[in-house]
Design a protein that fits this description.
Helix content: 55-70%
Oligomer: single chain
Order of helices and strands: HHHHHHH
Low-confidence stretches: none
CATH superfamily of the largest domain: lambda repressor-like DNA-binding domains
Protein name: Transcriptional regulator, XRE family
GO molecular function, one term: DNA binding
Number of domains: 2
CATH architecture of the largest domain: Orthogonal Bundle
InterPro entries: Cro/C1-type_HTH, HTH-type_reg/antitoxin, Lambda_DNA-bd_dom_sf
Pfam family, one: HTH_3
Keywords: DNA-binding, Transcription, Transcription regulation
Number of strands: 0
Distance between the termini: 66 Å
CATH topology of the largest domain: 434 Repressor (Amino-terminal Domain)
Radius of gyration: 24 Å
Structural class: mainly alpha
């Protein structure tokens, strides 16, 4: 049941928002409350992060646009050709690309 504007104002007038926030922080720190979120990272993004490159840098290395790399990482598009080969290397042997960048 939705509260009317008047009921909301009456309820909120009785609250101590500051104390509620402090208590929430205490609860989170104590591990009593909180939500844990996990994020699935694509193998391509994981390889890029392992190499230590930003999306812009990695896109440049692969010779594609930033947008194309983002779509690959998000699974909206699939790479082909030479980019697919480089990505396979990046996923399986990221240290090889790291060596190439250092040279």
């Amino acid at each position: 049941m939705r509260l009317s504007e008047k009921e909301l104002l009456e309820r909120d007038a009785k609250r101590n928002i500051g104390e509620e926030l402090l208590q929430a922080v205490r609860d989170i720190k104590a591990g009593r409350v909180g939500r844990v979120s996990t994020i699935d990272v694509s193998p391509l993004a994981a390889a890029r992060l392992k190499i230590g490159l930003s999306q812009s840098e990695f896109a440049h290395l692969l010779g594609v646009s930033l947008r194309t790399l983002q779509e690959w990482e998000q699974g909206r598009r699939t790479p082909s050709g030479a980019a697919k080969s480089l990505i396979t290397i990046a996923i399986k042997k990221p240290e090889v690309l790291k060596e190439l960048l250092a040279a």
